[in-house]
Amino acid sequence: MSTNLEVGIVGLPNVGKSTLFNAITKAGAEAANYPFCTIEPNVGVVDVPDERLQVLSDMFNSRKITPAAMRFVDIAGLVKGAAQGEGLGNKFLAHIRETDAIAQVVRCFENDDITHVEGGIDPLRDIDIINTELCLADLESVEKRKERVAKLIKARDKKAVVEDGILDKFIAALSDAIPARQVELTEDEMEIAKDMQLLTRKPTIYVANVSEEEAADASANPYVQKLKEFADKESSEVVVISAKVEAEIAELDDEEAKEFLEMAGLEESGLARLIKASFKLLGLQTYLTAGEIESRAWTINIGCKAPQAAGKIHTDFERGFIRAEIVSYSDLVACGSKAAAREKGLVRLEGKDYVMQDGDVVEFRFNV
User: Fold this and answer.
1) Which residue of 159, 291, 343, 363 could cross-link 325, Cys pair, CB 3.0 to 4.6 Å?
2) Is the pLDDT of residue 118 over 70?
3) pLDDT of 82-103, one tens digit each?
4) Looking at residues 110-115, what average pLDDT do you find?
C-alpha cells in the first residue's frame, strides 16, 4: 500500500458525489507539501485531522506542522452499462483499480429539483447497480486471467493450479453479482488474490448523503436505516454526510468552520469522519515525530514494526536501523516535556521487533 492513502469516490449521477468531491478539493491540502508530483483535476488531497500535532508543535517550538495526507479520486463515468464501456466506462475502471478503498456515495435525501437518474430514491437499488457494474468488470478480468493460468497449468506450474481454484470461486460469485470480498478464502489464497486487483475485493465505505436538516441527526431517515442494515451484513461502514453542508464548510476558514459546526450541532466535519472511517477500514494508524524543524504525522499499517516505520521517513532509516526512542503521546503531554518524561522512565529504547502503537512519538537511531 502506498504511503498516501487513496480512496476512490463512486456514485451514480445526481447523488451528490461531485458536490462532495468539490468540497474535498476546496478543503484541500497545500499540494506543494506532498510528494505527489502533479495533482490531476480529479484528485483531491486533504490533511488527516490530528489535534496532537499542534500540541507537539507548541511543546517543541516547531517551525512547521505536516499532517498525514489522504488522496480522494473522483471516479466519473459510473452508470448502468459502465462495464460494457457506457459513460466513461473503461477509463473509470482504470482509475478505480489504483485506489486502496472505495467510498460509494448514495443519495438519501428527497429533492424535487434534482432528478435521480433511476427515477426515485432507493439507496439499495443504487448500490446494486454500482456493485453489478463492478462485478461485471471483475468477471471479465478474472475470465481473462483464467485463460492465462490455463497455459501455466499445462506447463505444470503448481501455483497456477491453486490460482485456478481461486478464480473458479470468484467466477461463481461474480456471475451472481456477489462481490469478490464476500468470497471466503484461506490466508494463502488471500495472498494470491491480492495480485488480481479486483474492484469488488476493495474495502468499501458507504457515504449516505442526507439533507442539510439531517446533517447532525439522520436517525429518523428511513433510507439511512436501510443502508446501515445492508452495510452491517457485509461488515462495511456507513458515514452520514450532507454534501451541501460540507461544501459550505469548505468555503470557511478554520475558526468560522468551527463555529458553523457548533451551530449545526456537529462535533466534526463529515470529511473528518470519512477520513477516520477510511483509516479504520484499512487498518491504519499514525506515529509522530517532533522537533524544532517540524512536528509531523506518519501513516503506517497497524502491526507495523519499528524498522519499517522508520523506512517511511527514509529508506536509510530502515536499512541502518539501530533503535527507536519512543514515548507515548499521552505520557509526553502528561509530563509536559520529553526531559520530564525521561526522568520518570517513560522514554523507552525499542529494538527491531517493537510493534508500533498509534500516537508513539519517535526518534529513530540509525547508522548507514
Assistant:
1) 363
2) no
3) 556 554 445 566 777 888 999 9
4) 73
In whole angstroms, what is the distance from residue 201 CA to residue 185 CA?
A: 12
CA–CA gap between residue 174 and residue 182 (Å, rounded): 10
**Higher-confidence residue: 363 or 23?**
363
Count Cβ atoms below 10 Å from residue 156 Cβ, excluding itself.
Answer: 8
Those residues with Cβ within 8 angstroms of residue 184's Cβ, 6 or more apart along the chain or in another chain: none
Secondary element (H or E) of residue 5: strand 5-10
Alpha-carbon torsion, ordered 335, 338, 344, 350, to 10 deg: 130
Strands 101-107, 5-10: pairing is: parallel
Residue 364, φ and ψ in degrees, nearest 5: -90, 140
3-state secondary structure of 311: helix
Is residue 108 over pLDDT 60?
yes
Residue type for position 60: F
CA distance 198 to 180: 7
